[in-house]
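anyone seen this seq b4? input:
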Amino acid sequence: MDIKLTKHDKRYIEGTDDVYSIMQRVLLRDNQIDQEKEHLWMIGMNQAGYILYIELIALGSYKSVDVEPMNVFRVAVMKNASRVILVHNHPSGSLTPSDADKDITDRLIQVGRILNIDLIDHLIITPKTYISFRSTKLMDELEQSLKYVPTYQVVERIRKEEKLIAKEKLAVEKDKTKTAQQKAKAEKERREKLELATATALRDKGVSIEDIAKILGITVKAVERLIKDK
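predicted toks r here
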C-alpha cells in the first residue's frame, strides 16, 4: 500500500531524524487497532535522497511481521529507486532489535546487492522515539555478514583477499621502516581470521570439509582445527 506524504513532510532525506519525523506521523495516522500491530514500511529514494515512494510492505501481529524479501524490493525496482530504508514499529515500545529483525536485515542487504539497490538503514520506531541500525553500528556489522552471501561470492571474496594479501606482502618487502617479522605476523593473523570466517560461512552453507580445504588451499585437518577452535 502506497503511503501519501502530507504537505508537512519533507521530500528529501538528510538523516535519520527526517525519516522518523515522517514515519512517526504515518504511524500515528493509523487507527488505534492497527497501531497495536507491527508494520513494515520501505522508503525508496533516488541517489540524491529524494523520496520516490513510501510503501507499507507488510502488516503483522502485535509482536511480529512476515516478510518475503523479493516483495520488499518489488516497488523499488518498478520506481527505479537506488537507495532504500526499512522501517518497522514495535508496539511493545521496546527499541531492542530482535534476532528476527537482524536476520531479515541481513537477508535484505544481500537481495539489495543483487538488484543494485542499497539498503542504507533500518529503523525501529515507536510513537515517541526510534533506533537506527546505522547509527548503532549494527548495519555495518550486518553488511560484513556472510550468512546469506552465495557460496560463489564467498569464493570470489577469498580470491580478492588473497590478491590483497599478495600486494601487502610485496609492500612489506619494500617497507624498510617495519621489520619483516612484524608484517608477517600481521599477515598471518589476517589470513587466519579470513580462513576462519570463510570456513565457518561455507560450513553453515553445507559445504563439505574436503571442499572447504580445496577452496582455502589448506589441509582437511587445518579446516577441522579452525572450526573446532571456533
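The two ends are 45 Å apart (CA to CA). The longest helix spans residues 180-204. kinda curious what u guys think
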